[in-house]
Amino acid sequence: MTQQAEASQKLKPHKIWQDGHMPQPCAIVIFGATGDLAQRKLLPTLAHLMHDHPLPQSFCIVAFARRPLDDEQWRAMALKSINTYMPEDDRLDEEGQKQFASHLFYCQSTFEDSQGYQKLKQLLEKLDREQGTAGNRLFYLATPPETDSQIIAQLGAAGLSHPGQGAENGHEEHGNHSNNHGKSWARIIIEKPFGHDLATAQKLNRDLGRVFRENQIYRIDHYMGKETVQNILAFRFSNGIFEPLWNQRYIDHVQITVAESLGIGTRAEFYESEGAIRDIVQNHIMQVLCLTGMEPPVAFDAEAIRDEKVKLLRAINPLTPDEAKQDVVRAQYVAGEVDGKHVVGYKEEQGVKPDSTTETFVALKFFIENWRWEDVPFYIRTGKRLPKRSTEVTIQFKRVPHQLYKPSETKGLVPNRLTIRIQPDEGIALKIGAKVPGAANQLSSVDMSFSYNQAFGIESPEAYERLIADCILGDSTLFIRRDEIEASWRIIDSITKVWKQLPPRRCILIKLEPGGLLRRMGCLSAMDVPGITLSCLWHDAAEARVYIS
Ligand SMILES: NC(=O)c1ccc[n+]([C@@H]2O[C@H](COP(=O)([O-])OP(=O)(O)OC[C@H]3O[C@@H](n4cnc5c(N)ncnc54)[C@H](OP(=O)(O)O)[C@@H]3O)[C@@H](O)[C@H]2O)c1
């Protein structure tokens, strides 16, 4: 390929600050700044944001962490991270690194020590005076979930849930709509998992509510920062031809798949307590489900969109114990080979109990009980060590009411199917029937395809970049509201409570009979990966093998 052709294939940079939306100066305080999320995602994202989409000069990042470091040691640590984790063609040159480092500050404390929060308060006030952070604070809790309530209470006790006095017109945010015009603000981002079940999520919401107003709270799910997830709304509500078909009259079923090819890696402790249903279904899949199924909002704003998402979640009845047994399958991956290399099974992973019943795969069926979706099954599935990494939503339309062609002529034909690929290879494909060229009447399904990269030639922002930028701007559209998170847990609890009561079963092999459980559940195709026994997925196969624990 010529250099010119290569250059023309290079994606153009995206815009993150829309016209008229300029970020205010602020201090971002990262709790858990030495942890995996902060080092691998947050710091590289902030470095990119600062370098490519200039943040105001008076912008600071404060690490609140327990290791005995000073500002210079913290800067060296942060630079090492961004040089390791930023994509190669994004890395900052020496001057850029120096610039970035000059915005970093360190406050040493444990989460438990109230003195530490006083120290933090003094540091933030100093930054307001010396760096011009204008009293604006964003607290990012990249922390073990069990420490969140402690940190929230300590922030409240230290008076840090209110903005500082740095702004000329220093006022708190009031009312439902947060904006930046002339007011200073304090906001908090809470990472997933938000609670372990409904009761713990409600408790965390109460703990937050004692210290912060709802419009200061940003519950993050990084899936909502993905362009392709946001595009579900754009696709549905900006195209006149699909919305009239988007209902039970024309849609046979919907499938939402989040498949990962990797195992649990080093996250055994976390995964053992969460499993696939809490790690993926309760948050990412429920968000995608909401955007796919919700009614049109009255406006494109945070409250209107989240109102519709909550309405949709409320239309999903918690599963009865019988439904939870019949319509939900869970499984664990077993040992096998991937790319010629032996990989261990879940129970053999370091840190996993040999008798663990934690599911690494879950497939289930929901119904949304409203006019639009009556009797349309939503098949959900997610798992680790699956044949390929893929997140997609498939809308399967009903067959034509009367088939004119002979069965022998339509063997290669499937009903219309719209697939929204969220990752990788982001795009949309619509399967349509077409005549194979030649004298015979032979029909086949073909794809009409749209690829994000090819269509726009613009790089997509990293999910965290979009979400952090939105939080700085005070736009909570892509964040999860209190009632939304609780509605989602109510559904998940109806399944996990039944699981808790079931005796752990030995692994059994399920055959997928035509019309049998897995086929009905949308686990419609066997994709055999050498040695990996868990192989139920996707469309049109006669058999799938699933180990259920
Ligand atoms: N990692 C990811 O990709 C990812 C993705 C989505 C969500 N999350 C969520 O983000 C949160 C953080 O995850 P992580 O993977 O970054 O966890 P992690 O690597 O275990 O980091 C935890 C951080 O908290 C600090 N910490 C723990 N207890 C403390 C205490 N008592 N006082 C002061 N500091 C303390 C640790 O400090 P030390 O370094 O000194 O131990 C470390 O900086 C979790 O809720 C996780 O579920 C993570």
Automatic annotation (TrEMBL):
<comment type="function">
    <text>Catalyzes the oxidation of glucose 6-phosphate to 6-phosphogluconolactone.</text>
</comment>
<dbReference type="InterPro" id="IPR001282">
    <property type="entry name" value="G6P_DH"/>
</dbReference>
<keyword id="KW-0119">Carbohydrate metabolism</keyword>
<comment type="similarity">
    <text>Belongs to the glucose-6-phosphate dehydrogenase family.</text>
</comment>
<feature type="binding site">
    <location>
        <position position="192"/>
    </location>
    <ligand>
        <name>NADP(+)</name>
    </ligand>
</feature>
<dbReference type="InterPro" id="IPR036291">
    <property type="entry name" value="NAD(P)-bd_dom_sf"/>
</dbReference>
<feature type="binding site">
    <location>
        <position position="260"/>
    </location>
    <ligand>
        <name>substrate</name>
    </ligand>
</feature>
<feature type="binding site">
    <location>
        <position position="226"/>
    </location>
    <ligand>
        <name>substrate</name>
    </ligand>
</feature>
<feature type="domain" description="Glucose-6-phosphate dehydrogenase C-terminal">
    <location>
        <begin position="233"/>
        <end position="501"/>
    </location>
</feature>
<dbReference type="Pfam" id="PF02781">
    <property type="entry name" value="G6PD_C"/>
</dbReference>
<dbReference type="InterPro" id="IPR022675">
    <property type="entry name" value="G6P_DH_C"/>
</dbReference>
<feature type="active site" description="Proton acceptor">
    <location>
        <position position="284"/>
    </location>
</feature>
<feature type="binding site">
    <location>
        <position position="222"/>
    </location>
    <ligand>
        <name>substrate</name>
    </ligand>
</feature>
<dbReference type="InterPro" id="IPR022674">
    <property type="entry name" value="G6P_DH_NAD-bd"/>
</dbReference>
<keyword id="KW-0560">Oxidoreductase</keyword>
<feature type="binding site">
    <location>
        <position position="279"/>
    </location>
    <ligand>
        <name>substrate</name>
    </ligand>
</feature>
<feature type="domain" description="Glucose-6-phosphate dehydrogenase NAD-binding">
    <location>
        <begin position="29"/>
        <end position="231"/>
    </location>
</feature>
<keyword id="KW-0521">NADP</keyword>
<protein>
    <recommendedName>
        <fullName>Glucose-6-phosphate 1-dehydrogenase</fullName>
        <ecNumber>1.1.1.49</ecNumber>
    </recommendedName>
</protein>
<feature type="binding site">
    <location>
        <position position="384"/>
    </location>
    <ligand>
        <name>substrate</name>
    </ligand>
</feature>
<dbReference type="Pfam" id="PF00479">
    <property type="entry name" value="G6PD_N"/>
</dbReference>
<feature type="region of interest" description="Disordered">
    <location>
        <begin position="161"/>
        <end position="180"/>
    </location>
</feature>
<feature type="binding site">
    <location>
        <position position="66"/>
    </location>
    <ligand>
        <name>NADP(+)</name>
    </ligand>
</feature>
<keyword id="KW-0313">Glucose metabolism</keyword>
<comment type="pathway">
    <text>Carbohydrate degradation; pentose phosphate pathway; D-ribulose 5-phosphate from D-glucose 6-phosphate (oxidative stage): step 1/3.</text>
</comment>
